[in-house]
Amino acid sequence: MDDTPVPVDDPKPQGKGRPTPKRRDAEGRRRQLVSAPKDRKEAYRQMRAKQAAERDKARRGMLAGDERYFPVRDKGPARKFARDWVDSRRLPSQYFLPFSLLILLATWVPWPPSIRAQVLNLVIAVGWPIMMIGVLFTSIYVSWKVKRLVAEKMPDESVKGVGFYAAMRALQIRKLRFPPPSVLPGGKPVPAKK
Predict the structure, then answer these.
(1) Contact (CB, 8 A) for 163 and 81
(2) What are 67-122's pLDDT values in tens digits?
(3) Contact residues for 153 (Cβ-Cβ < 8 A; gap 6+)
(4) Sign for the pseudo-dihedral over CA of 152, 153, 158, 160
(5) Which of 11, 147, 178, 189 pairs as cysteine with 163 (C-beta 3.0–4.6 A)?
(6) Phi/psi of residue 143, each to 5°?
(7) DSSP bridge partners of 189
(8) Residues β-bridged to residue 183
């Protein structure tokens, strides 16, 4: 048996097919023209314009639901699950702010003296305590439920802070939640805006 290697025709050329450019030519192509500001005011103006463009891009990304632009507190699969879980339900705590406004307005209305005492008594003795107990129990339930579900569905994710995050989101009026809800109550996805 003969162990001599057999030459194989290599279809690829050995060189790259062009000469290596000189360093000054390569560096010259990489350089870009920079328009240096004429004075300090112009430099500040350019810097502010650049920062405004970056903020606008980040805001559009956040509104579109792009997680790259979210603040750190909203990033991660556990936080997304918490947002979707809260947004897919109608919870009593989300009516906290409108109900508080209603109570405040009821105390400001110039009622006749006999009715005013009854309204204040009703607001202070009945309305406010019922609202606070409802918010407290809803927050505890939401926090406990979301933490338990995240621990079950995502065992590798940390549940630290997820319950509080979900409870605080449940306190917000749905239209004012940020990042905006991606699911409707009932769990259907929010239709895309045209």
Answers:
(1) no
(2) 888 888 999 999 999 999 999 999 999 999 998 898 888 888 888 988 888 888 88
(3) 81
(4) negative
(5) 147
(6) -60, -50
(7) 183
(8) 189
